């Protein structure tokens, strides 16, 4: 049993060291965009387009920090996530200005058109809270404001992030919704199974089980040999 404890201690100390020295998961992609307030002062049909440097396939996480200064309480900041601007499929995240701080999430698909998933008209978000949107092959789409989930595990039939747009005016006659600040848009994606660290717990478990079996067999054999010696010992 002492040998087993030594192995477990060594494995436990090896994991964090390996994690620190391991190179970045080769499948990971990261993009970050600082969106100026002026990009939102456009009509929806003339939305400002941002094409990402990387293609983020299926498993991704977006973080948005909204530090825009709204010109009036009717102002909105709308972010639409796209696979392809030439197709009608997109995910929309909207953030209204103070004092209401309306927050909504909508999805548009070729089959069903535009439909609202979540619409919180009062204090749906605040500038001090990080807005996150995650998508995975098994969990679908989840959108959160701080630690509070607004949308959970919504099936959007897969989604590869390639570009996004921002806008804030519903018509060309609207006044500019924001007059200062910026929105930080960051996205990271990757397949965790391509990182060796992903498999380390399973490897440690397998080694531990093998050692337990070996120790039990050794203990049993030792007991049998001791018993034979006792039986053969002259009385």
Automatic annotation (TrEMBL):
Protein name: Uncharacterized protein
Origin species: Nitrosotalea devaniterrae
Superkingdom of the source species: Archaea
């Amino acid at each position: 049993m002492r040998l087993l404890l030594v192995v477990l201690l060594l494995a436990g100390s090896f994991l964090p060291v390996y994690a620190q020295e391991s190179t970045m998961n080769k499948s990971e992609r990261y993009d970050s965009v600082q969106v100026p307030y002026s990009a939102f002062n456009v009509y929806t049909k003339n939305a400002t387009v941002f094409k990402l440097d990387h293609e983020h396939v299926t498993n991704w996480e977006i973080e948005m920090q909204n530090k825009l200064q709204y010109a009036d309480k009717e102002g909105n900041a709308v972010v639409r996530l796209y696979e392809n601007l030439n197709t009608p499929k997109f995910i929309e995240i909207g953030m209204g200005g103070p004092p209401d701080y309306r927050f909504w999430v909508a999805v548009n698909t070729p089959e069903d058109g535009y439909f609202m998933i979540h619409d919180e008209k009062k204090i749906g978000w605040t500038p001090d809270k990080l807005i996150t949107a995650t998508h995975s092959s098994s969990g679908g789409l989840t959108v959160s404001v701080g630690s509070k989930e607004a949308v959970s595990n919504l099936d959007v039939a897969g989604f590869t992030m390639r570009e996004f747009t921002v806008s804030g005016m519903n018509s060309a006659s609207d006044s500019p919704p924001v007059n200062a600040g910026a929105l930080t848009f960051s996205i990271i994606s990757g397949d965790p199974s391509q990182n060796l660290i992903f498999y380390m717990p399973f490897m440690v478990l397998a080694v531990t089980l093998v050692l337990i079996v070996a120790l039990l067999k050794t203990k049993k054999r030792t007991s049998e040999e001791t018993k034979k010696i006792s039986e053969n010992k002259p009385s």
